[in-house]
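TICKET: design request
STATUS: open
ATTACHED STRUCTURE:
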């Protein structure tokens, strides 16, 4: 028996699509002044273009900002016994 796979889109799938776009590929470089990329394999393509020659380049990704730390205020005991 074959199992049916659901085609539901999840948040993790959307994130995965962004990571595999030409904007993060080793073979692509940004064209100044436009939203396009110049790919060594495919020519001029959009940043969201995906091809099978994709090689991830971690230096092209800008990391997310870390969340601010929440430091609880502690009561200070200045009373000396």
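STATUS: resolved
RESOLUTION: sequence designed for all positions
ATTACHED SEQUENCE:
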């Amino acid at each position: 028996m074959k199992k049916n796979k659901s085609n539901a889109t999840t948040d993790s799938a959307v994130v995965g699509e962004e990571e595999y776009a030409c904007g993060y590929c080793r073979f692509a470089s940004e064209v100044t002044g436009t939203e396009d990329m110049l790919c060594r394999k495919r020519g001029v393509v959009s940043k969201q273009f995906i091809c099978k020659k994709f090689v991830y380049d971690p230096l092209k990704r800008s990391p997310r900002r870390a969340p601010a730390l929440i430091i609880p205020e502690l009561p200070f005991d200045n009373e000396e016994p």
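CLOSING REMARK: The helical segments are 11-19. The chain is about 10% helix and 15% strand.
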